[in-house]
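Sequence, please.
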């Protein structure tokens, strides 16, 4: 839908409640007890963030909170930018889109203290059609994650070439982890 000259998509809000009625052990040394009920509030999600787009630039975001009756147990949020454009070069038509986003997760109440996780996500994609029957698609997704003493990186490139009814696809993946 349109809002203040922005194209808005992936708008969703959710509320969840986890109710626990049966006693269970929270820690190995504790007697069974009824744990706190878990409540969740989210506006969009990490895999489908709210998108505000005023061609060619836009923004993406999501936020979520987890809490019990005793307090906050977790927070998730992301913020990023989007760029989208279309072009025509003679007999070729094409579309390009890219985004970069930072995603932050925070958990409290875990055995080894609060946990933090930060991810940087880069997505690039393009599609070109030549003379209406040759189609070339390219997609790149790169994710860098920091979690405590662990750094990890994942990248994936997908290439697809289609000529009339014949298509060839290739996928390349790269994973790397480093711990302190």
């Amino acid at each position: 839908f349109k809002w203040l000259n922005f194209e808005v998509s992936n708008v969703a809000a959710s509320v969840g409640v986890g109710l626990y009625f049966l006693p269970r052990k929270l820690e190995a040394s504790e007697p069974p007890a009824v744990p706190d009920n878990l409540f969740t509030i989210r506006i969009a999600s990490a895999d489908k963030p709210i998108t505000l787009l005023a061609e060619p630039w836009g923004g993406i975001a999501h936020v979520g909170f987890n809490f019990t009756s005793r307090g906050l147990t977790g927070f998730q949020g992301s913020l990023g930018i989007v760029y989208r454009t279309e072009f025509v070069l003679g007999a070729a038509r094409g579309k390009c889109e890219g985004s970069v986003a930072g995603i932050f997760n925070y958990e409290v109440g875990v055995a080894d203290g609060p946990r933090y996780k930060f991810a940087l996500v880069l997505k690039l994609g393009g599609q070109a059609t030549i003379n209406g029957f040759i189609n070339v698609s390219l997609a790149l997704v790169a994710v860098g994650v920091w979690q405590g003493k662990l750094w990890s990186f994942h990248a994936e490139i997908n290439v697809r070439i289609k000529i009339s009814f014949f298509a060839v696809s290739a996928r390349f993946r790269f994973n790397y982890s480093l711990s302190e």
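The mean pLDDT is 83.
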